[in-house]
Design goal:
With 430 residues, the chain is mostly helical. The protein has one domain: Up-down Bundle (Amino acid/polyamine transporter I). It starts with a helix and ends with a helix. 82% of the residues lie in helices and 0% in strands.
Length: 430
């Protein structure tokens, strides 16, 4: 056991730059985002989703720049916790860290329950008993994978994430060879509120690349490698999602009515379109890689969360993995036993999003202080912080208006855990 724990310990400068990039890209999940999550933006902005997507990717780039600036300087296993701590002190660092811990910890069952209870049954007929078994099997398999060390899952993520982008491009080229190109997706055909809803939908679809922040200590080149990997992965994923939105609009005839008809026909336009234009074999490959994309995103989050746990709780990686695995398996067990996959997905997604946005508000709000300490503070640093706080604040507003009690309790849980944890730390130093 001691030898395994020692083997899993983070090793300084042991991960090459391309694996840091793989962590960022896999956590965004290019094919999962383009095939599944992009659909939510379509429901708001329809044939204007491409222009909404451009706007959304630029809006979310505000947070990307802040994350990039932090990660260049702070190269640790603590990621967001150390970002907030360096800017705003230990207490706010703890609050941001534990809110982020809750967000990532609950994201693991959220994404896998979405896969097992919603994605797979929507296209294939499976006995619910098998789905219940799969709900438990995924956390066990991913935990065993993580215990093999960090490099195998990251190598796997690098290969599969690259293939995901290739599949998106191949399908898009085929669709556009049939439909031709048009400037219509650049025209706004919905109201401003619908356009903005679609923009934010695409923006938050591209969230997740910050999973590489927790590999700073292990990265060759430290912060420079992490920051660069984060930016490149965001740009690649943005291209993939925007290209997917364009060719899906093209397939639907470049009209709101056509997009509405497409959404009535399927919840996963990418898979549906691949069946229609590429045939069943390609569609099956596309679907398998979509599933793999979601699992890859969970794996990247698992890697990041194990390192955040390692930083917050105890410097023992095996124990950190066991803590995360117990939580992951426990929540999935609820889904497996109750078989209320859709309800569990809604609750866990709300908790994950509201705690993520709140931790980002703390990090963004403290960014000007961080910039003052580590860079020459400029007016755009202050503007970046303010705009990011407003962006994440809007995200919290959207969740609170839909799920008030769950949202408030989730935030309170993170704050209470952080306060208790900080008090324990202070008692030890007395």
């Amino acid at each position: 056991m001691d030898s395994l724990s020692k083997k899993l310990e983070p090793k300084e400068g042991s991960l090459p730059r391309y694996l840091i990039y793989a962590q960022s890209l896999a956590s965004i999940a290019p094919l999962g985002s383009a095939s599944a999550y992009l659909t939510y933006a379509f429901y708001s902005s329809y044939a204007s989703t491409f222009i909404a997507g451009i706007l959304g990717s630029l809006i979310y780039f505000i947070w990307v720049l802040i994350g990039y600036r932090y990660s260049k300087i702070i190269a640790t296993t603590g990621g967001i916790y150390d970002f907030a701590r360096s800017a705003s002190g230990e207490m706010l660092g703890k609050i941001a860290g534990w809110l982020y811990w809750i967000s990532y910890a609950i994201y693991l069952p959220s994404a896998t329950t979405y896969l097992v209870g919603i994605v797979i049954p929507s296209e294939f007929s499976f006995n619910i008993v098998y789905l219940s078994i799969l709900e438990i099997a995924i956390p066990i398999i991913l935990t065993l994978l993580l215990i093999t060390g960090i490099k195998p899952p990251l190598f796997y993520a690098l290969i599969t994430s690259t293939l995901e982008v290739i599949l998106i491009v191949v399908l898009g080229i085929k669709v556009l060879s049939i439909t031709g190109l048009s400037v219509k997706p650049l025209h706004v055909s919905v109201g401003l509120s619908s356009l903005m809803a679609g923009a934010l939908g695409v923006g938050f679809t591209l969230a997740g690349g910050g999973a590489s922040f927790f590999l700073g200590y292990e990265a060759v080149g430290k912060g420079r490698s992490v920051g660069l990997a984060y930016i490149i992965a965001y740009c690649v994923a943005s291209f993939a999602v925007l290209f997917a939105s364009y060719y899906e609009i093209a397939f639907a005839g470049f009209t709101n009515t056509g997009v509405a008809s497409l959404l009535n026909a399927t919840s996963y336009p990418g898979f549906y379109i691949s069946q229609k234009v590429m045939g069943n074999t390609f569609a099956l490959i596309f679907f398998i890689f979509t599933i793999n994309s979601l699992i890859g995103s969970v794996t990247a989050a698992y890697v990041a969360l194990s390192r955040l746990t390692y930083t917050l709780v105890k410097k023992d990686m095996l124990l950190s993995i066991i803590i995360v695995a117990s939580f992951f398996l426990g929540v999935n067990l609820i889904g497996s036993v109750t078989r209320q996959f859709y309800n569990l997905y809604n609750v866990t997604t709300t908790i994950s999003l509201v705690t993520l946005y709140t931790s980002h508000i703390i990090v963004s709000g403290g960014y000007p202080l961080f910039a003052k300490k580590n860079y020459k503070l400029k007016i755009y640093d202050i503007l970046l912080g303010i705009l990011a706080v407003l962006l994440m604040g809007y995200g919290i507003y959207e969740e609170i208006t839909s799920y008030f009690l769950i949202s408030i309790l989730s935030i309170l849980a993170g704050v209470i855990i952080a306060v208790v944890h900080n008090q324990i730390r202070l008692e030890r130093f007395k």
